[in-house]
Structures are given as structure tokens and as C-alpha cells.
Design a protein that fits this description.
This protein is an alpha+beta fold and about 400 residues long. The protein is built from 8 helices and 21 strands. Helices cover about 35% and strands about 30% of the residues. The protein binds zinc ion (ZN).
């Protein structure tokens, strides 16, 4: 590699000077190769740094064919540049990454679970651990252990070792590379190979909080936050809880009880409303029936309702057709059209065949059986659809 990796020896370096060695085309943009850089290229679960080369924004940094490419969207002519990395972003990534080492060591020590993979996202990081089960108590136990390591502010050192030295080291995992093997050592806690950037003492991780976990292929995937992210997370949740408490006029500790009571009240109210709605629809059906003469002929009730719930209309059809000699052709015009054709038991007309013979008028579909059929289609032509069904019935 032509580029000296300044971040390897000094992850706290924020600004540097370097020579532009070459500018390569890269996916419609440019990849700047420098003789030295403080920009970490993405890899090993850690995203790349962002920042500037002079006043040009570095979009991302990648390692490709043995070169570190600083991706920019304008061509670079100058030979000497000043680079500066986005330190807030880098420090955040260092907190998450070092936190992951501490977590991995704790999972290993407390649960015998090895780390299968690690991913650092924009807001949250995740880690896959090779264990089969995990409980809320386990999470507290693990968090206490991990945060105790932070409180002890243990030194974190980096050194490059040769392959021959490896068997003598208490490694948590074996390195993937065979030369320039970087060993990250957290005093008394963890010793593992890694090419990323880390803080110099565990205290700088600030805090580790497990967010959640779920089963994944062959293990459990945990999401977690460290340092500034944990503070941001706490701030967000605290604000949500405070707002909820204010809305419910209760102390935060009583929110759960208040919400449970509210849900219960809501369910009871909903039940009462449903009963009232049924009563009203029953009355509506009785009113409709009263208006038809009881002369022994078939009562044909055909109605189109605007903006009405189809379930209410179905219930109305049910009540109507409990009365002998009744056929109901009911529809509602909402965003789309829905219809139900139904008859009382004593009428011998096939509702399904009438429904299917007319439904093409609204480009719809649906069906049922001899007693009742339902479906939906366009609202345009709904009147013609009902009219056509009426005419078929008359025959
Ligand atoms: Zn690392």
C-alpha cells in the first residue's frame, strides 16, 4: 500500500498534510490516493470517516485493490493538500467500536458466546452472538459488567505482532490477516485482532446500553448504543416519557398503569358503542320494512349509501332479510363501491347469479351463494349496477 495509515498509530489525529499521488476514476466520481491519511476506510464493521481534503468534501473512503481511495466529486490537481476528518463522527464511531470489544468480551466471559458479526449503523450498532437464549435479567447482568469495565477506565493499547507471537496471546478470536496483525488490548478484559479505530481508555466509551435482541441464524442479534449515542437515546426516551406523563397528567412511574386503564376504558366504550350501533341499525331496518305494504308480494329494498361502513350495511341487510318475503340490494359509495345482495330464506331467487351477472357494470368482482352475495368495484356506474339487478329480479 502506498498510503501511510496515520489512524493506525494515532486515532486522535484530526488534521494532516499529505501529497496527492494519483486521482483515479471511481463510479462517475474520483478516488484520491494520498501518501498518508487520517481517514479510516470502511471495513471490519466500521464505516469510513467523512471530512474534507482542502475545501472538498470527502464522500466516503474505501480500500480497493490495495489502495485507500478518498471519494470526491470534483477532480483534484493540487499536489499538497490539508485533510481534516469529521471528528465528532469519528469519536462516535470509536465509542461504538470500543464498546463492541467490551461487549464481545463480556458475552464470551459471562455466557460463553462468541461474536459472529458486528455492524455499526448510523444510529445503532448490532452484534451477532452465538448463544441460544437470553433474558432481561441476562441483559442487566451483562450491562452491569460492561459498564463496570468503563468505570475502571482501563487503558487500551494497540500493537502489531508477528504470526509467531499469536499462540502466546490470550486472543478472543484469530486474525483474518497474516501480516501486520494489530492486536487491541483492553487491560485485563480483552485481547483481539482488529484494524479499526478505538479510544485509548475504556472510560471514554461513556456508557453501554443494550437496546434489544432477536433470534437470528444460529444465534442472537443484539442492538446497542454507546457513549454520546446512549445519551441521545436516553434524552429521546426521557422526552417521550415526559410528554406522555404530561398528556396523561400522571407521574412517569404511573404511565403504564394509566395507559392500561385507558385501554380498558376504551375497550368497554367500544363494546357499548357497538351494541348501540346494532340497536340503531335494527331500528333502521324496522323503519324500512314498515314502509312496505304487507300484501304478500316480495319487498325489494334497494339503497345506495354514501360514506357508510360496509359492515353496518351488511348488518342492515341481515336484519332486513330476517323478515320473510324480503330482498335487499344494498351498496355503499366510499372511495370505492361495495355491495351486498341478500334475501330472506323463503324467497327462491339465486342472489349469487344476479350479483355476478351485473357486477361487470362497475368493473368489480365478488360473489357468494344463493342466499347472499357481496363484492365491490368502481363507484362510477353504481346506480346502473343496482338498477340492472332490480330489473333482473323483476323478471
Ligand atoms: Zn476493533
Amino acid at each position: 500500500m502506498r498510503t501511510e495509515r496515520l489512524f493506525d498509530n494515532d486515532p486522535y489525529l484530526k488534521q494532516f498534510e499529505a501529497e496527492v499521488l494519483e486521482v483515479l476514476p471511481y463510479e462517475g466520481k474520483y478516488g484520491v490516493v494520498l501518501d498518508r491519511t487520517a481517514f479510516y476506510p470502511e471495513g471490519g464493521g466500521q464505516p469510513s470517516d467523512s471530512g474534507c481534503l482542502d475545501d472538498t468534501t470527502v464522500l466516503k473512503v474505501i480500500e480497493k485493490d490495495g489502495e485507500i481511495l478518498h471519494i470526491v466529486d470534483k477532480h483534484f490537481g493540487v499536489k499538497t493538500i490539508k485533510g481534516s476528518i469529521d471528528w465528532a463522527r469519528r469519536f462516535d464511531l470509536m465509542q461504538q467500536h470500543t464498546g463492541q470489544h467490551i461487549l464481545s468480551a463480556c458475552f464470551e466471559e459471562l455466557f460463553g458466546g462468541s461474536t459472529d458479526s458486528f455492524h455499526m449503523g448510523k444510529d445503532i450498532s448490532s452484534i451477532e452472538i452465538n448463544i441460544v437464549s437470553f433474558s432481561v435479567n441476562d441483559a442487566e447482568y451483562l450491562e452491569n459488567k460492561a459498564n463496570a469495565i468503563i468505570y475502571r477506565n482501563l487503558p487500551i493499547t494497540v500493537r502489531v505482532v508477528s504470526g509467531e507471537e499469536l499462540p502466546n496471546l490470550p486472543l478472543r478470536k484469530m486474525p483474518k490477516v497474516t501480516e501486520n496483525i494489530r492486536i487491541i488490548n483492553i487491560k485485563d478484559v480483552d485481547c483481539s485482532p482488529c484494524g479499526g479505530t478505538h479510544v485509548k481508555a475504556t472510560g471514554e466509551v461513556g456508557m453501554i446500553k443494550i437496546k434489544n435482541w432477536e433470534k437470528c441464524k444460529g444465534g442472537i442479534r443484539f442492538t446497542f448504543v454507546c457513549g454520546g449515542r446512549a445519551l441521545g437515546d436516553y434524552r429521546l426516551y426521557n422526552s417521550i416519557i415526559r410528554t406522555l406523563g404530561e398528556k396523561l397528567s400522571v407521574k412517569d412511574i404511573n404511565i403504564e398503569e394509566a395507559v392500561n386503564k385507558m385501554l380498558n376504558d376504551f375497550k368497554n366504550t367500544e363494546k357499548r358503542l357497538l351494541l348501540s350501533a346494532r340497536e340503531l341499525i335494527k331500528l333502521e331496518a324496522e323503519n324500512i320494512i314498515e314502509k312496505y305494504p304487507a300484501d304478500g308480494g316480495i319487498r325489494l329494498v334497494s339503497r345506495i349509501f354514501d360514506n357508510r361502513n360496509i359492515n353496518d350495511v351488511k348488518l342492515l341487510a341481515q336484519y332486513l332479510t330476517q323478515v320473510p318475503n324480503t330482498v335487499a340490494l344494498l351498496a355503499c359509495r366510499n372511495e370505492s363501491a361495495q355491495a351486498i345482495f341478500s334475501r330472506s330464506e323463503d324467497v327462491s331467487i339465486d342472489m349469487d347469479s344476479i350479483f355476478k351477472a351485473a357486477i361487470h357494470i362497475i368493473d368489480g368482482k365478488g360473489g357468494g351463494n344463493s342466499r347472499a352475495a357481496q363484492g365491490g368495484g368502481r363507484t362510477e356506474g353504481l346506480d346502473d349496477f343496482i338498477k340492472a339487478a332490480e330489473e333482473m329480479l323483476m323478471k
